[in-house]
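Exercise: predict the fold of this chain.
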Amino acid sequence: MENLFCKADIRQAMRLRRNSLSTRRSHLAEKKALAALTSLIPGHGHILSYASFGSELCTWDMNFRLAAKKRLALPKVVGKNLRLYRVNNIETELTPSRLGILEPNPDLCERIETGDIALAIIPGLAFDPLNHRLGYGRGFYDRLLQETESGIHTLGIGFTEQKTGKPLPVEATDVPLAQIALF
């Protein structure tokens, strides 16, 4: 129970920290992220990104570029899991989830498997020096990464203000990321 309490405290503190970033600071980080991510993206395969919302590091410029190249994959929550879909047209193929997050419309998007993913860009509320991330607490990404047998390269992205100085509390179901890039 103590880990969950600590995680809840960290989530609340990091959400407040991220929400307090100025618009100028956010835009500067987004520009740096777009430039850096463009060089990190492999030349083949689909790129699993996320539909940023709220104060998350904005991924929309990158997502539009990937969609234009028919390489964008976005997750859709189905029950307790994420299903992945290729999105070719962001403006017409996404619908809001019950939480207001844009997700692929399964009637308009092709479902793809994790083996089709060359790079997974993963959001989070906090990141630590050991490449662990703290998400929103529902375990969607951890379950997805546990299911993969293909060894997808995972990259956590966010703002430098989301980095912790010490390791986050982790549980057996938490999957560390291969790499973290904070801007």
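Check your answer against the key: The CA atoms of residues 52 and 59 lie 6 Å apart.
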